Amino acid sequence: MIKVEKIIPGGQALGTMPDGRKIFFWNALPGEVVTEYEITKKKSHYVEAIAKDIKEESKYRAKPKDDCYLSTSPWQIIDWQYENQLKSELVAEVFREHQITINPTKVITDNKDYFYRNKMEYSLFWDNEESKIKLSFHARGTHRKIPIIHSSIERPEIFSAAQSIVDELNSKHEEARKYQSLLLRCNQDGKVSGGLYENHQPHPHFDNLTDSILGQAYSYSPNGFFQINIPVYEMALTEIKKHIHTDDVLDLYSGVGTIGLSVAKDHHLTLVECDKFAFAELARNCTEASFGGSLRRRAATKGQTPATAGWLPDAPKRWPRAIFSKSENVTNYIKSDQTVILDPPRSGCDKKLISRLKEVTPEVIIYLSCNPATQARDIKLLLDKYQIESVQTFNFFPRTPHIENLVILKKPC
Question: What's the pLDDT at 313?
Answer without folding.
Answer: 39
